[in-house]
Records
---
Amino acid sequence: MNAPRPTALGIKAALFYLLLLGAFFAARYSNLFFLLLAFLAVLALYGLAATWHNLKRLRGEVLRIHPAPAGARAPLKVRLAAGRRARFAVTVELDLPSKVRASATAPFVRGDVDVSGELPPLSRGVYPVQRARVVSSWPFGIFRARVPLAAQGHIVVYPAPLGADGGGGAGESDASAAVPVDGMIQPSGLREFRPGDDPRRIHWKASARKRGLVLLEWEGGTGSGPEVVLDRRAPSDAFEHGLRLLAGLALKAKDGKEPLKLHAQGLEATFGPGHRPWDELFEYLAEVQPLDAGGPPPPPAGGHAVRLPPDPLLRAGGAP
């Protein structure tokens, strides 16, 4: 634990104490000033001792922060062990680059507790965690002490998904129209909703027209999960759109417990059950960058593979 230091309020309180001390020596009748100075000194010493005592046994860690989509507020959870008799207010601070800070506040901590907060919306990227700590200025707010926390090394923010269930503001039908596929993930029709169906697959526009819940079905394709080719030789806008579509396909495959095979310049791997973990794919999507138009082509893939970015976007961006 770092040694307690005065807060901005504590500095103002010290200046006020010095003013009273000067009045004590200048006044002819100083009994009242003496009592006031003694009272304030006792409060300051008690505040310093309480701030130090409350945090000296505090231990905690930032629970794992899973990859989150860009623009979303990811949950922040911290587990603290403060002791049975402890009862004080704390704020958890998580510092990221570019002066980005996530915080979670607990009005009172007692025993083992979980403190919850949120990360601010972030753009696509991998953000190293520069510092994680618990801060408390209880009880009077004139001294502040900090305790470092154990935390993961970085936070992964992948592209906001398109075409995933409930993701990115675009429905599956929107993604299927944008991505040219060969019978693997394109919609095959509509049917009535039955008990046990996934409610996230409801086609709300069709349900409104038929005045009943309607489900959008998809062709099964090879049954081995989607295969995707990501061509990094694309203009920036088309490349980012392709990453969002790929994130949507990855989330759909993850929800369906299917693997996803990815072919891209510099990476050829399968993710999902029995293969590389999904978090590795999301971290790749968070940090991958486009290549020049003259770069090497992506590795070859089967004819049923999804090609990203879609050809219409590449033509609009002027790529060959």
---
Amino acid sequence: MTTDSRTFVPIAIALGLAAANMAMAQCQYEAIPIPEPCNGAWTPLGLNGNEQPTVVGSQIGCDSANPRPFKWVSGAQPIYLTVPTGLGIAGARGQIVSDDGKIVGAANMLATSYDNLAVWNIDGSFQMFEPAGMPANVNSFALRSDGAVLGEYSNGFENGTKGYILKDGVY
């Protein structure tokens, strides 16, 4: 039995291209562990599209059983986001971060157990909002490039789930 070179060459080229494609596909992602300054549960929830991306999320267990919001940039230690005391917040989490650094998440309210909308502005200041001026759970965030926040809220009443857009601090 003889090998026909006309058959062998296309097969060799196809195998070479397949191997090259697999090698390129494997190199598209890089795993970078978030440094954990304490042994707690670190949950990343959001990532922006910058060249050096910012990760946001929540951490439980290092010094509190309640979730604490954090942000992290590769090459640095995670930084806890400021949550003012005296507002009745049991815990909070960062969930989405814009390319310019605005962070949107939720703050769990101790008195109602509902999650209010929490916003950490670019300057680090904190704002909290109740959708429709009533206790309700906020969820499903999106953040437009103009700073508008899109989401939904539900208070478990007959009104069901409602959508909202928050722009410049106004619903």
---
Amino acid sequence: DLQANKFAQQKTLLQHRPREYHLLTKYYVHESPAAIKPSKHYSYPLYGLPKDEAALSYEEAEKNPRLIRYRFGKQAILKGALNNYSVPVLAYFNREDLEAALMEGTVVARFQNGQKTKIFNVHRNNHIAYHPNLKPYAQERYWFFREVDGIKGYGKDADHKISVVPTATFAGNLADLGLGRLLLVRYKNNKGLMLGKIGVLADTGGAFDHNLYQLDYLAGVYPGRESFNRATKNLPDYVQVWLL
């Protein structure tokens, strides 16, 4: 409750959270059209790891503050700050789809002109913290991605990430609750019946630092927020949580 109260003034859902209930947010794997080359409709690049650390392990990169990755915030990157650096572009998206990829951490890219579909997952970030009181478009945290062979959850680096299953995965505060914890969430549906979902705590994010009042449910793979919202409209905002 003390943690939730710190942000309740800016977040309406926290203001109405019942005592002894957790806030349940929902996330999804974003699927969207993409292009190999920039165009009028696909003008925002999704970057891979800069070349200056391509051969560095996570531990080696963390000790080198002069890397390209640490030099810019998201707003500068979107304006072209990386254009003159050796940074590979994995795909081009429109702004909405790029923001969805940055927010959700994974994007299923359906390339045009018969190119194969690829999955990209976050690799390393620019070390700017997620700001809980800023809207997603205004954030300065930026993620660099890499191609992966499936939907991924927690891992300190792309080489260490675990594979996860939609509808059976929760994101949360791994530091305090523990990776791999089996959770049961219970809630009443719109008919007043008590329902439950069991899942594994297998993902996290900057929003969960010092945050024990919230869980994030991986609802599935959707081509946009509208279809995601339709699929999750009957899920509640507040749930009871048990650690199994």
